[in-house]
């Protein structure tokens, strides 16, 4: 997490005695990375259960679920139920500090702060103009009618053009939506003969499908055959005519081979360009999840696309995106911008070639159907894998946006640690069952790829702190009190003072060399009213204390005072405390409204 702006922190033992004056060898505080122990590998599986009317069910327990990894039953070691509507941030409200240093009698009333963040990601690379226009108009009506005072929306595109960060300004959102247009990046660079889809190119190059190669070759022979020199047959019969016929047959075989080489060249070009195009879409999707992960509240991503096909090579990246979204509590929902999709036999008006006869047209129609199903797959997998919803085969896109923007009332999160997991990057099929599924429909993550290496424990700990910092949840594994004041020095400058008092009784100290050892990482962050990170501070408190000192600390606790320079405005303050030995967390929220 980047730390920007002016910030200082001072460590105290409760009672007003600075730690440095009390006993420097026993407790020190400085800016340095902490060390952490290794954690077991944990696979998280979001599950949504709905009844026959489509309503989410929230009355199930861990015993109601069965989880299988590659067909083998797994022990569910983590089980939680996330409930919608629990997004109100319980927060400390800062008091105003007077010029004399005294606090005002009553806290100021904070303005509405951002609690929900919805990122609309439009796939303007794969979604053609007619579908994209219909989707953007539906989204515009949906946002104008449903954006609440505590909700912030952002508009992102897979082309990277016209992005708008989180805001509650409806006019800016409207302007961003109206700028959306179809922006293909690579695919148009193919020659167009044969007219191959990315899916069909994959079948020819990667799957070695002889039927696909045969159909494409026949199309080349009919629509754009390779040039061949003219051959004049001798008059009459005889050996000369037979030899000429043999030459013609040999030339026909050479032309066919040349046509196949044309197909292979075109298929390779389309495959390379399409892979770069799809990798770009996945990269933007991952960036959107990262942006949402830095939003301090409930996080939803609505992916609007006509769909696109992923080759086997890109499947590992897809699983990494699902893992990142789950870790960041980002729920991805998908809307198929095609609406009610009807397959046109032989292709639509955009098809560049139609040669080859009925057999070729039938074969290409078959591959077109298979391609459409495969292109939809990515949309369904993103939704199933993160507890979101998939809206498709329906032209009422405004209703679709409304359904997707509304979080499921209940989401179960199952966690398990695979036994003897090989670090080989292979795909593991997941299956979640209910012990009693009568009348219930279950939506769950379909699988994951095994890691290729162990996570670094230090980086894993940093990620855990970041996740807590950019969350909205109150965590009290370590009891922590938070008190805040602000002082407005001028119309453009102000200072926020945070006092965090940590109760150390719940910490797991490690005994070594006659001392009690543990490290505390204390992180504070300030976010503006749109959820953007403004400034923060981080301190590492290294404790190596004698028994007598620990006894005093148990009675008094440790206090950390932090000063943050800001401009007047409305802010959300986030405090996170983590200890290295017990890996326990505390997270508190505060709101500051500086007039």
TL;DR of this structure?
By secondary structure, the protein is an alpha+beta fold.
Could you characterize the architecture of this molecule?
The structure is a single chain. Helix content is 31%, strand content 30%. With 595 residues, it is of the alpha+beta class. It folds into three domains: 7-39 and 456-594, Immunoglobulin-like (Sandwich); 116-187 and 272-405, Rossmann fold (3-Layer(aba) Sandwich), CATH 3.40.50; 188-271, no CATH class. The strands form five sheets. Strands 3, 8, 20, 23, 24, 25, 27 and 28 form an eight-stranded mixed beta sheet that branches. Strands 2-1-26-22-21-9 form a six-stranded mixed beta sheet. Helix 2 runs antiparallel to helix 3 and helix 4 (198-205) crosses helix 6 (239-293). The radius of gyration is 31 Å and the shape is elongated. Mean pLDDT is 81; it is low at 1-7, 12-24 and 32-40.
Keywords:
Rossmann fold; Immunoglobulin-like; 8-stranded mixed sheet; 11 helices; 6-stranded mixed sheet; elongated; disordered N terminus; alpha+beta; 595 residues; 3 domains
Mean pLDDT: 81
Number of domains: 3
The number of strands is: 28
Give the CATH architecture of the largest domain: 3-Layer(aba) Sandwich
How large is the count of helical segments? Answer: 11
Helix proportion:
25-40%
The termini sit apart by 28 Å
Shape type: elongated
Structural class: alpha+beta
Percentage of β-strand residues = 25-35%
Largest sheet: 8 strands, mixed
Q: Assign the CATH topology of the largest domain.
A: Rossmann fold
Broad CATH class of the largest domain: Alpha Beta
For the record, what is the CATH homologous superfamily label of the largest domain?
A: von Willebrand factor, type A domain
Radius of gyration: 31 Å
Q: Return residue spans where pLDDT drops below 50 for at least 5 consecutive residues.
A: 1-7, 12-24, 32-40
């Amino acid at each position: 997490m980047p730390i920007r702006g002016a910030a200082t922190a001072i460590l105290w033992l409760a009672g007003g005695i600075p730690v440095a004056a009390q006993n420097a060898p026993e407790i020190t505080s400085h800016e340095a990375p902490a060390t952490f122990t290794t954690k077991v590998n944990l696979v998280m599986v979001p599950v949504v259960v709905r009844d026959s009317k489509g309503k989410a069910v929230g009355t199930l327990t861990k015993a109601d679920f069965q989880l299988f990894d590659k067909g083998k039953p797994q022990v569910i070691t983590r089980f939680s139920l996330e409930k919608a509507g629990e997004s109100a941030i319980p927060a400390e409200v800062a008091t105003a500090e007077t010029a004399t240093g005294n606090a005002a009698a009553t806290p100021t009333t904070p303005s509405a702060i951002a609690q929900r963040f919805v990122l609309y990601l439009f796939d303007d690379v794969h979604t053609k103009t007619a579908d994209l226009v219909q989707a953007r108009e539906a989204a515009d009506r949906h946002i104008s009618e449903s954006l609440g005072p505590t909700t912030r929306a952002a508009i992102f595109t897979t082309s990277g053009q016209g992005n708008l960060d989180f805001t509650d300004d409806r006019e800016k959102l409207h302007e961003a939506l109206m700028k959306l247009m179809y922006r293909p990046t690579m695919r148009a660079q193919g020659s167009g003969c044969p007219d191959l889809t990315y899916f069909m190119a994959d079948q020819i190059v990667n799957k070695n499908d002889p039927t696909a190669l045969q159909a494409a070759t026949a199309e080349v022979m009919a629509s754009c055959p390779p040039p061949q020199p003219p051959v004049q047959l001798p008059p009459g019969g005889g050996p000369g005519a037979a030899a000429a016929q043999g030459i013609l047959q040999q030339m026909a075989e050479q032309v066919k081979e040349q046509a196949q080489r044309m197909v292979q060249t075109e298929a390779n070009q389309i495959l390379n360009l399409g892979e770069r195009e799809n990798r770009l879409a996945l990269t933007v999707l991952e960036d959107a999840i990262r942006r949402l992960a830095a939003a301090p509240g409930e996080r939803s991503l609505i992916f609007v696309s006509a769909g696109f096909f992923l080759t086997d090579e890109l499947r590992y990246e897809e699983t990494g995106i699902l893992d990142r979204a789950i870790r960041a509590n980002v729920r991805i929902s998908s809307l198929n911008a095609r609406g009610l999709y009807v397959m046109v036999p032989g292709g639509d008006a955009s098809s560049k070639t139609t040669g080859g006869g009925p057999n070729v047209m039938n074969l290409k129609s078959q591959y077109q159907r298979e391609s459409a199903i495969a292109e939809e797959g990515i949309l369904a997998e993103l939704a199933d894998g993160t507890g979101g919803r998939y809206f498709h085969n329906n032209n009422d896109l405004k209703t679709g946006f409304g359904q997707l923007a509304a979080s499921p009332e209940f989401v179960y999160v199952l966690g398990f640690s695979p036994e003897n997991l090989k670090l080989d990057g292979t795909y593991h099929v997941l299956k979640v069952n209910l012990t009693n599924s009568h009348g219930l429909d279950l939506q769950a993550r379909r699988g994951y790829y095994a890691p290729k290496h162990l996570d670094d424990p230090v980086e894993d700990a940093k990620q855990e702190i970041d996740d807590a910092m950019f969350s909205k949840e109150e965590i009290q594994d370590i009891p922590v009190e938070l008190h805040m004041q602000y002082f407005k020095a001028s119309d453009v400058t102000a200072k926020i003072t945070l006092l965090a008092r940590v109760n150390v009784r719940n910490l797991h100290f490690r005994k070594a060399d006659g001392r009690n050892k543990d490290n505390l990482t204390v992180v504070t962050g300030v976010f503006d009213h749109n959820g953007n990170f403004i400034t923060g501070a981080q301190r590492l408190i290294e404790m190596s204390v004698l028994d007598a000192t620990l006894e005093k600390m148990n009675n008094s606790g440790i206090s950390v005072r932090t000063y943050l320079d800001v401009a007047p405005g409305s802010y959300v303050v986030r405090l996170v405390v983590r200890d290295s030995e017990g890996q326990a967390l505390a997270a508190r929220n505060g709101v500051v409204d500086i007039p």
